């Protein structure tokens, strides 16, 4: 913790003490404190921090896209199409309709984040809900919910997503729904497993004796405990989500033209892969870098949160 | 579910009967999952705004011709009737005819599934052959550059858009270097040369003793299988590492070390032995994933597998073909799951 | 540890070895023709039902017709084929064909007048989608046995009224005019289907090849028929393989794994045309790329808006960029090389003129939906339209779907704007005239879903009668002039904006000769090919 000694303002060390205390005064303080300790561990993992900084950069890119993008991502110029890397005014070249690839990539970051954020909200929440209810209720509720989970697990994933998109119509929102639909079952299983271990714990029995109803127990006492393993899983799944969205875009079922979604950009550019390789490669690299960032961060977080792997 | 089964078991003295019950319950579970799977697929098929009749009759059809085809395809019947009829047919092994090309779906699947099976099997073999040693090594050399390299190699595998990697791989290894065969399962003039026994060209040509075809087929499969292999390698090596770490930090390994056993014996005879079962589960899962048919890889490599079969069928609303394909893929997935569950119970004494 | 390392090394070297040692690529054998094409549109190989480009290629090489085109001289028009000669009666209603003697089907059965008459009757009775090509001459399942009949070695075809003989004969060169082996087909009849089910995947023809194998979305294999009456073809086996991606087709061609590639995009053509041993043929096809404007739409039914849109398309820009070499500007409904075709293309991109017209129509801003099939070149056209429309304040929303999704809505008059392609069904001007400029009943109930004018709710007033008149005109020069005049008015008035005509760029190995694709009028011919 030497860096804190160096910076050492009173306020910060005060916060530091509050966070690191061995005797937290409230449950909230304990929880925040343990997150803080996790963060400190994570900070020592250079790869995870590398991943995190890429993601921060991505968020900034998305927020300030209008300021950063050199050109209008939709502006066509048929006279300046398929320009190579480093062309004047087109640092990453231009696509088949003469649009600036760099500007499209920058705006595309917004779409990627939009997809990731929504799926990362929908799928784990659905999974959490199904899993905890099944695990807590047990009996026939458990059986039915878990059989439904099995059905969705047994589906070929991309096919299920394809089917839903085909049913709902192509488009970015429908692609998000479709991906969420295929992504929730594993979360349900994790949440159920956690619930099963928690529900017999003494303190849950104590809470129940105090007269708390099942709804309160699930939302206030079981959910918070499932969250950390879900967060790790979600972070590790992010790359898969981005790739699935890109795959749908590649098949023409994701974002619709002229949207600069990265998968759709690869799909458009793949026709020129032999002579104008950068058109498909730049968005391919973007997808690769972002999903690698998520994987690095997720891997680091697993080291922190998963006791199996945790450094001792 | 689990509770009730356990209670019933406890009451029954006969272990055989209990085992039979368990098998029955498992089969029932599989049947339930399959029917559910079909039902969901069926519903999706009906709400999909793609009109299979148009695909059959073509753009110029008059309304009367359209109507005639609509009725011939049985689409005028109530959805429920269609579904029951379908389940009944499937139970008798009849998957119906493809709406589009009027060929039996079972025949089509018998043609495309072995292609995927061949690719997925080779991919998994590559994934295991490299992924497991890599994972063990990373765990043993934890925190060193070897571990970090293994981690990066695996994470890159997770992060790569496979369709892009496929295109680039094809361009380099086939287009420029000419090291491997091109798209498709086998060179065009070797198509249908060896009699089809299993539908897997590598196996068929080996059975036939036709090594020219075998070599050619191998040259075609090497690239897509390596790509899929890389993908499963990423998963398998990470999981292996994680399992091994757990073992290596456990008491008995420390005891074994203290007893002066060689490092090799500790790692392979003790630690690795104990993760076999978990590992099989992981491999089965990854195998099941590849057997779904990696749609994008199949498209890039013009590989006539089940993934691209289902996708094509889906996009033209050929529901008999989609349902047939889903049944097969779902069944494989469920069976692999049950298999690894059973293996778990069978091999791992702690699971009892 | 050593073991691990050795294992990994072993695996790695094994893989590398496997990869390097397998490289050798052979050329295709001398008597085999291998073509890469997109053939996923084939749903049947029954000539009475087949109605797609890839299916027509197969059927042209498998079945003879009464009259047919000579691949060596397509400009000469229809020529004798299974019929040796024909005579037109004085009232212009009856054509009597005399069959060529001594011909046999692949089965060994003789080719009789009976087979020819039955094949045409069969197509009418089965009433599949392409049947209108025959039934437009007044044949019905009830009367067809009298209207088309065999007498000894003669086939006698009587139409319900007088038509231009060239119109009837041109229609008979279409896929549906294929003559099948009645005896063989009837052996495979199931529940009175006249062999329809069996012919979907099998063949019973008399031409250069028979169908050895069709694997949907994979390949079609044709095997030579040595007793072909024009002489045994040099290519003993023809394989058409379905390869979706242009880049993949190009790699296969460059490596010598195929002899010809049919779906290379402009960039791949540009990349390959200087390669050694590869030739590119530019072949003008009959397919037109157009947009249509639904007349049920409140704004689109204003003629000023229609005209404005015709000025908002960057024809030149598209032709010279992403469509380069594969589409040529063409603004008339008859493809070049057709009787009556004209090459006047007056419309150019002119935003000011369009804006004036829109102002006259009192339209400030307008949002329109266009339906497009998921195909790259169409998506690019749609995006270019979106760009140029926006310059005049029209906001174009693109809806992308599979072919069937978009077509279903188009047929239901549900799309404000449709962007798509149209290929002629038979090599006579009536084929396009009768769908673009013809609409006998524009009412909703008429459900004339096969007719483009109806789909756009355009009554085609003043055009329908002129199209009918042109179809029955027996003097060819007069007929030609009639079509030219119809098109001149159509171009200005109709809610169709015809933009381009397709040029197919066939990339082939330079040792492959005489491979013709049939230009705008027919399909590919494999029997003259030499290597």
Automatic annotation (TrEMBL), chain A:
One GO cellular component term noted in the UniProt record for this chain: plasma membrane
Sorted UniProt keywords: Cell membrane, Membrane, Peptide transport, Protein transport, Transmembrane, Transmembrane helix, Transport
InterPro entries, sorted: ABC_transport_permease, BP-dependent_transpt_permease, MetI-like, MetI-like_sf, OppC_N
Transmembrane segments: 47-69, 111-138, 158-184, 230-256, 276-298
Domain ABC transmembrane type-1: from-to ranges: 109-298
Subcellular location: Cell membrane
Topological category with respect to the lipid bilayer: Multi-pass membrane protein
Gene Ontology biological-process entries: peptide transport; protein transport; transmembrane transport
Entry-linked PANTHER family: D,D-DIPEPTIDE TRANSPORT SYSTEM PERMEASE PROTEIN DDPC-RELATED, OLIGOPEPTIDE TRANSPORT SYSTEM PERMEASE PROTEIN APPC
Recorded family membership: Belongs to the binding-protein-dependent transport system permease family. OppBC subfamily.
Protein name in the entry: Putative D,D-dipeptide transport system permease protein DdpC
The organism of origin for this protein: Jannaschia seosinensis
Top-level taxonomy: Bacteria, Pseudomonadati, Pseudomonadota, Alphaproteobacteria, Rhodobacterales
UniProtKB/TrEMBL annotation, chain B:
SUPFAM superfamilies, alphabetized: MetI-like
Chief location of this protein within or outside the cell: membrane
Transmembrane segments: 23-44, 119-140, 152-177, 217-236, 279-303, 323-344
Keywords assigned: Cell membrane, Membrane, Transmembrane, Transmembrane helix, Transport
Molecular function (Gene Ontology), one example: dipeptide transmembrane transporter activity
Highest taxon in the source lineage: Bacteria
Membrane topology: Multi-pass membrane protein
Cellular component GO terms held in the UniProt record: plasma membrane
UniProt-listed InterPro entries: BPD_transp_1_N, MetI-like, MetI-like_sf
Localization: Cell membrane
Record domain ABC transmembrane type-1: where: 113-344
PANTHER family with a match to the protein in the record: D,D-DIPEPTIDE TRANSPORT SYSTEM PERMEASE PROTEIN DDPB-RELATED (PTHR43163:SF8), DIPEPTIDE TRANSPORT SYSTEM PERMEASE PROTEIN DPPB-RELATED (PTHR43163)
Protein family (similarity comment): Belongs to the binding-protein-dependent transport system permease family.
Name used for this protein in its record: Dipeptide transport system permease protein DppB
Lineage, opening ranks: Bacteria, Pseudomonadati, Pseudomonadota, Alphaproteobacteria, Rhodobacterales
From TrEMBL, chain C:
Pfam short name (any one): SBP_bac_5
Highest taxon of source: Bacteria
All residue ranges annotated as the Solute-binding protein family domain in the record: 78-442
Keyword Secreted in annotation: no
Keyword Signal attributed: yes
Alphabetically ordered keywords of this record: Signal
Annotated GO CC locations: ATP-binding cassette (ABC) transporter complex; outer membrane-bounded periplasmic space
Matching InterPro entries: Peptide/Ni-bd (IPR030678), SBP_5 (IPR039424), SBP_5_dom (IPR000914), TAT_signal (IPR006311)
Subcellular location, principal: periplasm
Compartments it resides in: Periplasm
Gene Ontology MF terms in the entry: peptide transmembrane transporter activity
Biological processes per GO annotation: peptide transport
Annotated signal peptide: 1-26
PROSITE patterns: TAT
Membership in a protein family: Belongs to the bacterial solute-binding protein 5 family.
Name used for this protein in its record: Putative D,D-dipeptide-binding periplasmic protein DdpA
